[in-house]
Design goal:
By secondary structure, the protein is of the alpha/beta class. The protein has a single domain, classed as Rossmann fold. It has 8 helices and 12 strands. The protein has a 4-stranded parallel beta sheet, sandwiched between helices. It has a two-stranded parallel sheet with strand order 1-2. The radius of gyration is 20 Å and the shape is globular. The chain binds nicotinamide-adenine-dinucleotide and uridine-5'-diphosphate-glucuronic acid. The site of uridine-5'-diphosphate-glucuronic acid has 20 residues, from helix 4 and strand 7.
């Protein structure tokens, strides 16, 4: 039997990457562009300390890095359900590959997990200690069970190999430059209102979500990566809205005349969701600053430009 060292590991943890002492940040983005767009990276292409690689995380990646932000995964229900086997491979094999990379080069790795690990929660608001209420064989399982396995892999690599891990459980986040046809509710309602189409509220419309603006989320992720806590830590905005309230807010902002249409919902849609962010406040000194009413107009402006719908004078 392998002898255990004082930290409980059979082998010492990997040496931290020497890149930690580097004077400059360099960024390597790896994306297979399934839901992402090169257009969003246009301003960085050609920058001497930026590199873009078309890469699928279900294949191993050999690069030298000291921090890994592991975000790769389709996140909108329409896209993650499109090829569920690929989604679960991305979560399981993709996370294994990123952890293997972290182990080889001694990097710290952050996983963007999700509030979907709480499933259709029976506790409200959700605290990190809640184990969730997830259907393991439903149409959302490729994503929510996939992320649960990804969290398990992160902790097993941490305990078994001493890898430095960070886990964020992100709650519904939105912002400019989202794919216009992403399919998630905020982008759908804004695009529909701008196109003068009915806002498609999925029944019953009383289900709730808590929406976080993207710049707040990025700030939270950077704090988590830089701090001493493995997580999991909830990152999200506790302001909670029903989908009907969201539709009314978007109407008021963009076009009070657009109708709201109740359409069929999809199976296992969580009925309520709101993060308890006590941990993020205490451990990261983080809380979101941008309310939904402040964030929506910023997204509207970007969608107007891309859809070519100028604001009426
Ligand atoms: N936005 C949210 O509300 C939210 C909530 C919880 C968790 N998350 C997580 O945050 C991460 C980013 O989400 P997002 O909202 O920006 O979604 P997104 O779909 O806009 O971005 C996901 C990115 O991953 C890439 N990708 C997908 N599969 C890949 C693969 N196999 N190999 C390489 N790249 C791949 C896509 O092309 C895209 O650029 C995801 O892991 C998601 O699960 C997001
Ligand atoms: O925050 C999270 O953890 C997860 O949130 C999302 O899941 P979901 O909340 O279902 O996202 P949406 O598709 O935006 O749906 C939100 C609510 O809006 C409703 N909806 C959606 C789209 C639409 O056109 N109309 C509408 O009423 C849905 O029924 C649902 O109740 C995505 O699955 C993931 O990006 C993410 O991991």
């Amino acid at each position: 039997m392998a002898k255990e060292s004082s930290n409980g590991l059979s082998k010492p943890p990997p040496m931290p990457s020497p890149l930690r002492n580097s004077k400059f940040f360099q960024v390597i983005v790896a994306d297979n562009f399934f839901t992402g767009s090169k257009d969003n990276l246009r301003k960085w292409i050609g920058h001497p300390r930026f590199e873009l690689i078309r890469h699928d995380v279900t294949e191993p990646l050999l690069v030298e890095v000291d921090q890994i932000y592991h975000l790769a995964c389709p996140a909108s229900p329409i896209f993650y359900k499109y090829n569920p086997v690929k989604t679960i491979k991305t979560n399981v094999i993709g996370t294994l590959n990123m952890l293997g990379l972290a182990k080889r080069v001694g990097a710290r790795i952050l996983l963007t997990s999700t509030s979907e690990v709480y499933g259709d929660p029976l506790e409200h608001p959700q605290k990190e200690e809640y184990w969730g209420n997830v259907n393991p064989i439903g149409v959302r399982s490729c994503y929510d069970e996939g992320k649960r396995v990804a969290e398990t892999l992160m902790f097993d690599y941490h305990r078994q190999h001493g890898i430095e891990i960070r886990i964020a459980r992100i709650f519904n986040t939105y912002g400019p430059r989202m794919n216009i046809d992403d399919g998630r509710v905020v982008s759908n309602f804004i695009a529909q209102a701008l196109r003068g189409e009915s806002l498609t509220v999925q029944a019953p419309g009383t289900q709730t979500r808590s929406f976080c603006y993207v710049s707040d989320m990025v700030d939270g992720l950077i704090r988590l990566m830089g701090g001493d806590n493995t997580g999991p830590i909830n990152l999200g905005n506790p302001g909670e809205f029903t989908m009907m309230e969201l539709a009314e807010t978007v109407k008021e902002l963009i076009d009070p005349k657009v109708p709201v249409k109740i359409v069929e919902n999809t199976p296992d849609d969580p009925r309520q969701r709101k993060p308890d962010i006590t941990k993020a406040k205490e451990l990261l000194g983080w809380e979101p600053k941008i309310t939904l009413r402040q964030g929506l107009p910023l997204m509207e402006e970007d969608f107007r430009q891309r859809l070519g719908v100028p604001k009426k004078a």
